[in-house]
TrEMBL record:
<dbReference type="InterPro" id="IPR037177">
    <property type="entry name" value="DLC_sf"/>
</dbReference>
<protein>
    <submittedName>
        <fullName>Dynein light chain type 1 2</fullName>
    </submittedName>
</protein>
<dbReference type="Pfam" id="PF01221">
    <property type="entry name" value="Dynein_light"/>
</dbReference>
<dbReference type="InterPro" id="IPR001372">
    <property type="entry name" value="Dynein_light_chain_typ-1/2"/>
</dbReference>
<dbReference type="GO" id="GO:0030286">
    <property type="term" value="C:dynein complex"/>
</dbReference>
<dbReference type="GO" id="GO:0007017">
    <property type="term" value="P:microtubule-based process"/>
</dbReference>
Length: 97
């Protein structure tokens, strides 16, 4: 992991998903440029992370990517909240139950 990346994965994330989630987030967000078209960047990242999580585990995933005061929107459904901090982003992931 490059020195400028800082990642914290909440303890309640299932251990078998931690590495996969980290790889997905790194691959999606390490190539984004938050300076240009921030809303579309966050929306695309959210959709991509959600789709790739669905490939790993066939559940309903909702992903919100937050950068400062900018955020994507989603309709929260009942489930477990898993959160990740990936400098400078916060990623909130809902996993359906």
């Amino acid at each position: 992991m490059p020195k400028n990346e800082f990642v914290v994965i909440e303890q309640d994330m299932p251990w078998n998903l931690q590495e996969a989630v980290l790889r997905i987030i790194q691959s999606v967000l390490s190539t984004t440029s938050p300076r240009k078209h921030i809303n579309s960047t966050l929306y695309s990242a959210s959709a991509c992370i959600s789709a790739r999580l669905r490939e790993i585990e066939d559940k309903e995933w909702q992903v919100v990517v937050v950068l400062g005061s900018f955020t994507t929107t989603c309709i929260h459904k009942p489930g477990r909240l898993l959160s990740v901090f990936y400098k400078p982003y916060n990623i909130l992931i809902w996993q359906s139950v």
